[in-house]
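Example 3.2
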Amino acid sequence: MGPYKRVLLKLSGEALMGDQSFGIDPLVLERISGDIQAVVNSGTELGIVIGGGNFFRGLSGIEQGIERASADYMGMLATVLNSLALQSFLERKGIPTRVLSAIEMRALAEPYIRRRAIRHLEKGRVIIFAGGTGNPFFTTDTAAALRASEIGAEIVLKATKVDGIYSADPKKSPDAQKFIRLTYAEVLEKNLRVMDQTAIALCRENNLPIVVFDLMGEGNIMSVIRGESLGTLVHY
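Structure, written as tokens:
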């Protein structure tokens, strides 16, 4: 598979923390921006969805006594913080970037309009989709699957702190088995928590392959886009 012309990159908020326990590590953002610059220079059209877990997670908000919908909206606002930070780093490298938010906040970002997003991509701009789906009870993984389907992306690249999908948490289980290829059905049946089930089901319905790979390896994003075997591929 690959090389790909239009891709959706899903970045976890936690990955932006680096070795910190909270917030954004500028060294991580600088390196990710460099990798994205290589992707843009190659001519690939790139949409990005970022999580907000480095600032706030909806589920942790519930544990603190915050009502679920409000907690999820707080998590969506955290994704806007990350989107603006990444935009700043990308534009410093001369990469034209637009933040499109599912929650309207005109002073900070354009509202998400599907046709406008596609037009930006065709003009060579990087699009950062902020605010999740704009609805509570849906994760940013589901937002990534949704936006990828809407813009006609060929693949979803899920960049994490792990180099693929394992049978168990490799940090806790040294004998955890790494999968090279999986079907959507296997991910759902084995309850492998790499993306939530709504996101997996959406990708399956739209025949959208997913590659789960290690964000921390320099040049990994470009390697996956070229079609090199990296991480775990989920497909039919």
